[in-house]
Write a structure and sequence with these properties.
Layout: H1 12-16, H2 21-24, H3 32-48, H4 51-186
C-alpha cells in the first residue's frame, strides 16, 4: 500500500539472533514468547491499526488536491491574463476610437442644441421686451386717457355746478319776485 508506516520484518529477529540464553528465558525481551507477542502486535497494527496508511493516503490526497487546485487556479489566472491582454489589445482601442468618433458627433450636436437654445432664449427675451414695452405704452396711454377723462369730468362737474348755481340763483330770484308779488296781494 502507499502508506507511510515503517515495515519491520516479521519473525526475522528470532532467526537472526542465535540462541542466547537471555532470549530463551521467559520474561526477557528476546524470549520466544516475547517475540510472538511482538509479532502479534505488529500483525495487529498492520491489520487493525490503519493510522499510518490513512496518514499516507491523506498526505497523498492533500498533495493531489493542492496540485489540482493550483493547476485550476493557474488556468483561471491564465484565462484572466489572456482576457485582459485581449481587452487591452483589441477591445480598448476599438472602444476608444468609437468613443472619440461618437463623442465628436455628440459634441457637435450639443453645440448645435446650445446655439439653438440661445437663439430661442434671445427671441423669447426680445418678445418679452416688446410685450413689456407694449404693456408700458398701453399703461401710459391708459393713464393719459384717465387723466383726460378726469379733467373732462372735472370740467363737466364745474359746468354742471355752475349751471346748478345759476339755476338756483334764478329760482331764488323767481321766488323772491313771487314773494314780492304775493306780498303785494296779501296786503289787500
Amino acid at each position: 500500500m502507499s502508506g507511510g508506516g515503517t515495515e519491520t520484518p516479521v519473525c526475522c529477529e528470532a532467526l537472526g539472533s542465535g540462541g542466547d540464553k537471555k532470549r530463551d528465558s521467559p520474561g526477557t525481551a528476546g524470549s520466544p514468547a516475547h517475540l510472538i507477542i511482538k509479532d502479534l502486535g505488529e500483525i495487529h497494527s498492520r491489520l487493525l491499526d490503519h493510522r499510518p496508511v490513512i496518514h499516507g493516503e491523506i498526505r497523498y490526497f492533500v498533495k493531489e488536491f493542492e496540485e489540482k487546485r493550483g493547476l485550476r487556479e493557474m488556468r483561471v489566472l491564465e484565462n484572466l491574463k489572456n482576457m485582459i491582454h485581449e481587452t487591452n489589445e483589441r477591445a480598448l482601442p476599438k472602444c476608444r476610437e468609437t468613443m472619440q468618433d461618437n463623442l465628436h458627433h455628440v459634441l457637435q450636436r450639443m453645440q448645435a442644441s446650445t446655439d439653438s437654445i440661445c437663439r430661442f432664449q434671445q427671441k423669447e427675451q426680445e418678445r418679452k421686451k416688446i410685450h413689456n414695452d407694449h404693456l408700458i405704452a398701453s399703461e401710459n396711454q391708459h393713464i393719459t386717457q384717465w387723466e383726460e377723462f378726469m379733467k373732462e369730468q372735472d370740467s363737466k362737474q364745474a359746468d354742471v355746478d355752475e349751471e346748478h348755481r345759476k339755476a338756483m340763483e334764478r329760482l331764488r330770484e323767481q321766488y323772491a319776485e313771487m314773494e314780492k308779488d304775493l306780498a303785494k296781494f296779501s296786503t289787500f
